[in-house]
């Protein structure tokens, strides 16, 4: 080791950056699904081969991509969603960084077929390492976008080796699609394994939240599900909570395998550990020992109060007055559970 400092090769930089965003096929899928929702799609169809390693294909009926934008589509930091840094404080789309497709194109073979309303035909182009390969070709197609990702991690053998089995990777994909479907009521989702005649998941666009929960998490969850009425009073609003909806299981719900809660903050699926701990703590006063509830909460927090830019996968977010907001929701949950507890005969586990 000479100890001298040298700049990294661009392709190395890009592969490292991509590896931070895409750890497994499910991360790529989530980014693309969010792009479809950002594009106002009402139907998102997903096709998966070998747990997403061989093939991940997302077809949506969103606004499509302008043919003239295709050459820079997979370049790093190219986006239609953010112009100046200040916009980040009021961002309403999932994306803003213009990094997802770029990253994916550095670690997989990407093909995009897309058509906007005003175009006569669809345009198809392939991408590698951020760059378009040749010129877009005219093809037949409907308004919307099909993104095909093949041979994920073909150039990062260590990442490939670290993956779970195709079956497990597929389950992670199904889980994320299911969770997004619950929080995107006007959007339909389907997911199919390549070669299977039957779909693994089908959520029609007009289904209610409860029906979505039933399809994704089963009838045991949905029949025991109750909606919480969350009043947004002035003091709550002052803390930055603009709206909240919650669906949680009642005290008759028993399950052996706990289902991680589905928390959404401004539409993003997040793991909010303080919220999980607080809500589980409350349930532990009511449920037989070892039983965990199913919890789905979707919060809208003043965009200026939320920092979505703390992690490349956006899995975690920070927001102001986190403690006050969680405490308020916890009290509400506590009251609700206490009221149903008094109106039933409770069998203790002892
Ligand atoms: P970001 O979402 O942060 O802007 P991406 O790399 O995910 O970055 O996408 C880059 C751009 O490609 C988006 O800003 C959007 O304009 C376009 N795009 C990607 N996927 C789709 C899609 N399914 N439908 C329409 N436009 C899309
Ligand atoms: Mg995006």
Automatic annotation (TrEMBL):
It comes from the Eukaryota. Coiled coil: none annotated. Residues 213-338 form the DNA mismatch repair protein S5 domain. It is found in: Nucleus. Belongs to the DNA mismatch repair MutL/HexB family. This is KLLA0D09955p. The lineage of its organism: Eukaryota, Fungi, Dikarya, Ascomycota, Saccharomycotina. The chain holds residues 1 to 350 of 724 of the full protein.
């Amino acid at each position: 080791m000479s100890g001298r400092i040298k700049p990294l090769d661009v392709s190395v930089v890009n592969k490292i950056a991509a590896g931070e965003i895409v750890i497994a096929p499910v991360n790529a899928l989530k980014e693309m699904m969010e792009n479809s929702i950002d594009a106002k799609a009402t139907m998102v169809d997903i096709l998966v081969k070998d747990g997403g390693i061989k093939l991940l294909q997302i077809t949506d009926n969103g606004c499509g991509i302008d043919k003239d934008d295709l050459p820079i589509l997979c370049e790093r930091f190219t986006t239609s969603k953010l112009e100046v840094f200040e916009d980040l404080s009021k961002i309403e789309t999932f994306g803003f960084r213009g990094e997802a497709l770029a990253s994916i194109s550095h670690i997989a073979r990407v093909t995009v077929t897309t058509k906007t309303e005003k175009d006569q035909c669809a345009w198809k182009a392939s991408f590698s390492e951020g760059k378009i390969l040749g010129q877009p070709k005219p093809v037949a197609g409907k308004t919307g976008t099909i993104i095909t990702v093949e041979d994920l991690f073909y150039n990062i053998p260590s990442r490939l080796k670290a993956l779970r089995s195709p079956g497990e990777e597929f389950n992670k994909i199904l889980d994320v699609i299911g969770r997004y479907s619950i929080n995107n009521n006007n959007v339909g989702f389907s997911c199919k394994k390549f070669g299977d005649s039957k779909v693994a998941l089908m959520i029609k666009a007009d289904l209610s939240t409860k029906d979505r929960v039933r399809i994704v998490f089963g009838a045991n969850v949905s029949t025991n599900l109750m909606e919480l009425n969350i009043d947004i009073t002035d003091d709550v609003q002052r803390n930055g909570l603009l709206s909240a909806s919650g669906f949680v299981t009642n005290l008759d719900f028993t399950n052996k395998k706990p289902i991680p809660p589905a928390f959404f903050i401004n539409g993003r699926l997040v793991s909010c550990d303080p919220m999980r701990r607080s809500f589980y703590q409350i349930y532990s006063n009511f449920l037989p020992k070892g039983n965990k509830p199913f919890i789905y909460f979707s919060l809208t927090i003043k965009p200026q109060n939320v920092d979505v830019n703390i992690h490349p996968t956006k899995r975690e977010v920070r927001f102001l007055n986190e403690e006050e907001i969680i405490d308020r929701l916890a009290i509400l949950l506590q009251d609700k559970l206490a009221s149903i507890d008094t109106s039933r005969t409770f069998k203790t586990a002892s």
